[in-house]
Amino acid sequence: MNHQNDQQRMDKIVSLAKRRGFIFQSSEIYGGLNGFWDYGPLGVALKRNLKDAWWKDMLEGHDELSVPSGAPSAFEMVGLDCTIIMHPQVWKCSGHFDLFHDWMIDCRETKKRYRYDHLQGRWASFRGKKLFVVTDQSGDEALAHLQTRAQKGFGLRAKQAGDIVWENDMISLANNVSLDDALGPDASEPGTLTQPREFNLMFETKIGALASDDDDRAFLRPETAQGIFVNFKNVLDTSRVKVPFGIGQIGKSFRNEITPRNFTFRSREFEQMEIEFFCCPSDSGDWYRYWRDRRWQWYLDLGLTEGRLQLREHGTDELSHYSVGTADIEYAFPFLAEGEFGELEGIAHRGDFDLRSHMEGKLIRQDGQLVVETDSTGKPTHRGSGKDLSYFDDVKRERFVPHVIEPSAGADRAVLAFLCDAYHEDSVPDDGGNARKRTFLKLHPRLAPIKAAILPLVKKDGMPEVAIELYKELKPHMTCMYDEKSSVGRRYARQDEAGTPWCLTVDGQTLKDKTVTLRDRDSLSQERVPIDDVVSLLKERLS
Description:
It is built from 14 helices and 30 strands. The chain has 543 residues and is of the alpha+beta class. It folds into 3 domains: 3-95 and 203-417, BirA Bifunctional Protein, domain 2; 103-199, no CATH class; 450-542, Rossmann fold (3-Layer(aba) Sandwich).
């Protein structure tokens, strides 16, 4: 599938998400707010099912007495729910206060602001004049945008566009390009872009009615992980867990993105599903590989297409200063250029960086070692808590600071990936026997917002009464809905767009032999099922 078709597909997905109540622009009646999204009735159910599946598979359903396949040993899992606003020192010791930033760049002419690493372009020349034409778009949209921008930069008409000479493939603006020669994405002349500068991504707030100066600053958390680290000792002391063990958390995080874009992929408010897994340093490499492989398999088991999913190990030049190893699970979102992937989840081997940071203070890497950063007087730049967060292994009779393996998934990005992957089109006969295009979401039954729809063929002859009774029997066991409006074909179409795996139709035959038609969303196959067996059959298919 080429990128143009992928982009058209993405436009259809966005349209479906709005039309069927999956995702809305936040504050839409006031023009919306960039980087913020609301989940509608179907969207909130899909997202809830995704989070429930993660919680069930990673924590609630975990068997702590057995050794899972691929794991070095048995282990325990517990949950946590931490506050969004934490003590400001947490973010200073973690490094977010000083280091959690992106580079931004402004246009002096248009007053627009861009994220520096999102700008790319090509060298173009026309009759001796040379420009580096810059775009903030991606894929085929970027190529079309560059053509339009070059025409404007050279002052050409459309019929002269073929005379522009393009000298290279697309490269990043950060690739040693002189800003004096750069034509900004919306500028009328080159040289209007400023030098890039740091922009801290944390949302700042104040605590208390008398808050006034910098000492009263607090921040909305940019990640859920730090709440787990600062509660490490509390969990140890109260839960009687032993290393190795993991702490899981689902919660909101906030990042003041410079240029949020690509639907819900890059948002300013989002939800994370994170595990911090604490283990003995000598076993940490094995645990890293275990969690990397397990998290990869989880997405496949829930239906993401393997060909659109990739597991990518970071090169040494990509690793964060604290990381011993990191792998990203990435998905080929339709809005990306062909061959590009966007991150769904990162699995990081963080070593002992986090617990040491909150014990000793902000750490930096120096001569290959993590050491406390100090100021000109030799004191820690950001002082740690001073609490002992080490662990004593009473079997091995040794004390150590546990290493951390962190599988960190974005719930919103996962929802987007499953929506993109589930979107399908085919042709089916309409009520008159003519072919019509069918749009359906091929969602895994565990994720589908509605598991089954109960439909009386007509609103008479006792069919609605039987259908309502079946609905009431099924409702306590799974999310289902009753629908008697419009023709049965249109009702099927509504359920297909909602991703409902099964439709149960009560018809004239039902009144004779107490069977209903069970329609499968994906294959469109229909079978007669005894009405008394419906609950047990669907529960079995969901299990």
